[in-house]
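User: I'm designing a mutation panel for STE protein kinase and want to avoid disrupting the core. Could you give me a predicted structure to guide residue selection? Please restate the sequence first so the numbering is unambiguous.

Assistant: Good idea. Sequence first, for numbering, then the predicted structure tokens:
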Amino acid sequence: MSGSYRIGQLFKGRLDSYTVAKKVRDTIWLAKDQTGSPAVIKFARGNDTVRNERDILKRFQGHSHFIGQLKDEVEVPASSDPAIVLEYLEDDLLSASKKRPLTGKEIKYVSKQVLRALDLLHSAGYVHTDLKLDNVLVNYKNHDHDSGMPKTLSDIHLADFGGTSHVNSQITKAGGNHWGARLANTQLSDGEYELQILIQQSKYFGPFPPKYVDLVRSDEIAMATIAYVLDTVESLTPFNMTTEREVSKADKEFICKIMKIDPRDRPTAKELLLDPWFEPGLELS
């Protein structure tokens, strides 16, 4: 298969047929089913992550309102790779937050729904490994017709499960720091991007506690990474020293719980869902 798709191209699925409408990324296209309802088609093009995402979504299908839904699989001519049809949501959280700042209540609401999705994965022994703003999909309600800007977030779905794997798999155990059910974990040998994250985390939430070395003592790359970070971060800017004017006390305490340098000190998603930071009956009107 050439891997080239075009607007107007028709793909036949097991449950419906889909007409390609718009390119989102190289292998991700918006489409419409036979009723004209929008959907998303994700093509594999020789990449095992789509096959893995299909299997993960099948496993958790119908178990949570906060995980993206697998709608169908389509046949791609001259290819044995799967192409999956996913539920369409209007936006992602990165784009939404650029359009206007999220309110404090919206931030708590989104956080709670994402934690619910993570708790479901973690309870079954799976970790997402790619948690970021553009992998959280959203719908809107109560549009402000005067400004044309979305007014309120509604549906929140955790998406992109191509890198999701079981905690006992070789993928999650690779590198200097294993992935696990503790929040905001980062592998030490994932490349330049992750190294910069580690540097920033050390700057604002460091320094590395002495016991952290116990986790990576047998990994030369990880030990070298820590040494590099310690040499790079010339001075700390402790987040916990921010004033009430900058960040509220409650928000600061919640963030500091998640951003512990040592993953063993971080709360799980299940523990965070019980945190008093979340107001009882939190909903968006």
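For picking mutation sites, this is relevant: The radius of gyration is 21 Å. Residues 10-87 form a domain with the Phosphorylase Kinase; domain 1 fold (CATH 3.30.200.20).
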